[in-house]
Amino acid sequence: MRKTHLAYFEDSDVLHLAISDEPEAGSVELSPNVTAELNERGELIGIEILNASAYLRDSILETAQARMLRLAGTKTA
Description:
five-stranded antiparallel sheet
């Protein structure tokens, strides 16, 4: 069964995205502070992000800066 839930735990700064209500049987670290949660068949059932506020802030800033650099490059070209 597919039930998508997004939960943020402010006290521990953890963001959890569950795409299934199946039990977790394992996990894989995708990058520092980002873990993929897997069911018993090895399928993705969730994502957990530690230090979520900093991770999201940094990701958004990197994306915005890259876009601004591309826009600046097209104006001068």
